[in-house]
Input
Amino acid sequence: MMNEKEVESLIKLLDDPDTEISRHVEDKLLSFGNEVIELLENAWSQTMDAILQERIENLVHKIQFSNVKRDLELWYISGAFDLLQGMLIINKYQYPDLDEQRIINQLEDIKRDIWIQLMYEMSAVEKVKIINNVLYTSHGFRGNTNNHLDPQNSYLSQVLESKKGNQILLAVIYSIIAQKLDIPIYGVNLPQHFILAYVEEAATVQNNHINNDFENRILFYINAFNKGFLFGRKDVDAFLKQLNLKPLNHFYEPCSHVEIIQRVLRNLISAYEKLSEMEKVEELQEMLAIFPQPR
Output
């Protein structure tokens, strides 16, 4: 059991000039995990010592980063079934005090606005037109074309708040809501782009395993970054040809939740590299290393 008096005494030693002592103290405090965060935050607010404040901030961050990494590992080894949960874990890297229920409620509100307009026996295109109208016209979601590499474009909470995001975050929001409505729309991991596929009901996507032959089961593709614009396989062919890439099957088919999370992490790494925030880059690379290398 953690002894509060012991912890408070240890915190006072964090700024000890002897680096060996301060390192030992830090290791001991880290071993307590989440239990010491509140005491550390109280100590931060009660001291005017800038060095101690900085060391407390670093220690709290280390504990929170350890939590995020552990949660992401657990999500992966448990089967990575819930994409939303994976996205919330990534979100907590930058926003450790994230109100998860608020995010869930925001998505449920959008889902309800779409559900009200859906009618029985609507065609796939009709359903997508309703989703597009609610997402882009009623709620005002749009691609962040002015500052595409901003890391905020890759955090679900920020995209839901600002209504601006990058290709993958808008596609993730679109697909999560569609699947909550039993509309079979899934992410497709194109190079330099991320799109959505509307899959015929008979085909199924089960997290990391894609079932059935998709070539004849994808009705059309959707560009969530461009207000839900619909297009076909020939357009994907042309895009790959433009990039001088072979038309490999996985460029056309729904990808796994793990591949989506990997893509989000790589986007964040690129964004923070551009901002020269190399500590964040290294931490995100640690998170990325949890997963197998992409094909």
